[in-house]
Each structure stands twice: as C-alpha cells, then as structure tokens.
Inverse folding.
C-alpha cells in the first residue's frame, strides 16, 4: 500500500514541476544556485558531488562552472554503473546516456571523501527522505559508502508530503534548498 501512495505522490510532484513556467524556472534556479554557493562557502566543502540536471531539476550548471574555476574545489558527478553509479570528476564533453542523462567520460579517479552531496529530488516525505524517480540509484550509492557526507536536496518547487512515504533505505536530507 505504501508504494502505491509513494508512486502517486511522485507522479503529482513531477506533474507540478513539468508545468512550472520557463520564466519561473529561470528565476528559481538563480535563487537556489545563489543559496547553494553561500552554503558551500560557509561549509568549506572541498569535494562536492553535483548532478547534471534534467529539465525539471534545479539547473546547477552555473554552480558547476563557478566551482570548477576555484582551485581548492573538486566537482564530481554520477556515472551510471549497474544498479547505481560511481562518482567521476566533472569533465567535458558530456554524452547522453540511459534515461536521457548526460555524463562525462568514465574516469578512474578515486576521489577523497565527498564532503557535500547536492542531490535533485522529485519530492520529500514527512521525514525529509528523498522521493526520486524510483530507480533507487542514489539510495544504493550512499548505502555502499562507508561514511556519510552532508546531503542537500534541491527542488524548484517544494513538493513535500505530510505523510511518511519512504522506505528504510531511502536517503535523508541534512538540508533542503528550494524556493
């Protein structure tokens, strides 16, 4: 029964995000990226896991560009592998892969621990646990790490359930930055 509600919630959040106007997206993206920059500066994070955004996700590309110019910051992104992903250094060119997700070339750089993970969400439940696209890739990735970085969830429009919809393995936010 729980998964039925979780999938309904996921669908309604995606629908809300898809119908956000381009002007509103542009405006919200700028505000959220500015807040993320401030957070990164305050936290002193050096190794940062970001993502290459899909259309309904916060566009963090300006943040990636900005962080790459900084000497003391390393930017990593997911590289899909099996039922999860590994992290690779963000490099151009990007290639469109499974689910329409863009990725850099596979690299064998094994980074030091990621200090901060900025993660896109479709929605969050009452426990601030992530409702994603339903593939479980982020959940599996973080479950396999032997440490826990600070996790920030991003979303253009907060889509939060007042009910607990998550499963025990769903990842939980330390912070949620939205507009």
């Amino acid at each position: 029964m729980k998964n039925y509600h979780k999938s309904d919630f996921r669908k309604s959040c995606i629908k809300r995000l898809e119908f956000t106007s381009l002007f509103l997206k542009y405006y919200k993206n700028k505000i959220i990226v500015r807040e993320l920059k401030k957070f990164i500066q305050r936290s002193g994070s050096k190794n940062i896991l970001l993502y290459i955004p899909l259309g309904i996700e916060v566009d963090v590309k300006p943040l990636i560009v900005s962080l790459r110019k900084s000497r003391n910051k390393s930017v990593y992104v997911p590289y899909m592998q099996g039922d999860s992903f590994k992290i690779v250094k963000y490099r151009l060119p990007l290639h469109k892969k499974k689910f329409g997700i863009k990725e850099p070339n596979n690299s064998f750089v094994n980074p030091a621990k990621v200090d901060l993970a900025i993660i896109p969400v479709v929605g969050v439940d009452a426990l601030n646990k992530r409702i994603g696209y339903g593939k479980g890739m982020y959940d599996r990735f973080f479950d396999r790490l032997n440490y826990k970085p600070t996790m920030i969830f991003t979303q253009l429009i907060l889509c939060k359930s007042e009910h607990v919809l998550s499963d025990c393995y769903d990842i939980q936010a330390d912070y949620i930055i939205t507009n």
Observations:
- The longest strand covers residues 74-81.
- Helices lie at 2-18, 22-43, 61-69, 137-144.
- The chain has a mean pLDDT of 86.
